[in-house]
Amino acid sequence: MSAALNVGDRLPEWSLPITPTLVVSTAIATRDFQDVHHDRDIAQAAGSKDIFVNILTSTALCERYVTDWAGPDVQIRGIAIRLGAPAYPYDTFTFTGEVTEVEDGVATIKVVGAVSLGDHVIGTVKVAA
Amino acid sequence: MSAHEQQALVDAAVHEKVMAEAERIKGWGEAAERVARDEVNQPTINNWLEAMGLDNPRFTAGEAPPSMAQVWTMYGLGGKPSEDDPLHSMMRVLTDAGFTAVLGTNCEQSYDRYLQVGERVRVTTALDSVVGPKATGMGIGYFVTSRNTWYVGEERVATMLFRVLKFIPHAKADA
């Protein structure tokens, strides 16, 4: 894959249903036990519509999206994300991405993970090119 | 934003206190060092791979997914930051000043290399900046940025800038 990254390359769109199981299993797998990621009563009492995806998972899904496209040998140098709309169960992630820069052996891939409320995560993933 | 406009958002004495505390806590540098409960280990990696739906043979052959760097030093169920943790301390200053709500806004991780099963990481926390007050869609608040640095022995393996908005929710401000 290393020679194949060019500015303007687009990643195929990826959809991921956001189930309660996804929210809870990813929160626990990232060792994030904050109650708003697994207890709907507490999340709603705190003003949220429901439990919601945690930040470590937003980052991890950017890692998965780029890895699924670039292949298992990709060397990820960094993932920088800005957080927007919350990701609630029964919504769907739609990930899109594009290579925006290839310089000094590093490719920058812009990744957006949208939900029905807007962009949940806007990120840049840097990989060895 | 001019000093005058800032004053309109937050009482000048409150703002001065917040910024003075921010300077004091920034002065601690990399602090509150913690060692991961466990070594980088395959069962924890496997749980993460299953939850994320990521299938990469490298991660069953000795390497750990890079974005798991933070996972190894999470506090765990019932764990809490220490009293001398710079982020925790700054959050407490702002909570006490009425900025009770918190929202994560940015997370920027850099990986020097992938971790290996059997390595044990440690992490430090530093307060990087406190910026505000700002009138945001969520309410009036300050952006608090902390910096985590992960090490194996003396070798830096990953860093993270984490920014939160610590704010007065609209409902409270209107009440």
Overview of the molecule:
The complex is a heterodimer of chains A (129) and B (175). By secondary structure, chain A is α+β, with helices and mostly antiparallel strands. Chain A contains 3 helices and 5 strands, in the order βαααββββ. A 5-stranded antiparallel sheet of chain A has the order 1-3-4-5-2. In chain A, β4 and β5 form a beta hairpin. The longest helix of chain A is centred in the middle third of the chain and has 16 residues, at 55-70. With 175 residues, chain B is of the alpha+beta class. Chain B has one domain: Hotdog Thioesterase (Thiol Ester Dehydrase, Chain A). Chain B has helices at 3-9, 12-26, 42-52, 86-96, 170-174, and strands at 31-35, 101-111, 122-135, 139-152, 155-169. In chain B, α2 runs antiparallel to α4 (86-96). Chain B is elongated. The mean pLDDT of chain B is 93. The chains are: A alpha+beta (129), B alpha+beta (175). Chains A and B meet through α1, α3 and β2 of A and α3 and β2 of B. β2 (76-83) of chain A pairs antiparallel with β2 (101-111) of chain B.
Helix-residue proportion of chain A: 10-25%
Unreliable runs of chain B, pLDDT <50, ≥5 residues? Answer: none
- Distance from N terminus to C terminus of chain A (CA atoms, Å) equals 8 Å
Strand and helix order of chain B: HHEHHEEEEH
* Assembly classification: heterodimer
